[in-house]
Amino acid sequence: PKSFSGPIGQQLTCYEKLPVVDYGPIDCSIPDIDRNFWSKDEQYLMDISNEITLGNCPEDLANQDPGPLFHSRWLTAANQVLRLYVSSSDPSGNLN
């Protein structure tokens, strides 16, 4: 399947066109790891995760494509959910 059926999964079909809004930061400790060993998907995950802990997401990061959705690629699904979060001014309890 190329989509999810739940309420968050259904929103992942058009998330990349949504503007970034003011959203609440999520307190989290992210380790400092050498980025040279990471794939582009892993770098995006770390970049957007860091911005979510700060409570802002720059437009250049928001405009990056987190990649296509495939159930077998959990990393791109995680990237898409985080991108959806930075576009949700009032996220559901499932995102917050």
Automatic annotation (TrEMBL):
Protein name: Uncharacterized protein
Source species of the chain: Araneus ventricosus (Orbweaver spider)
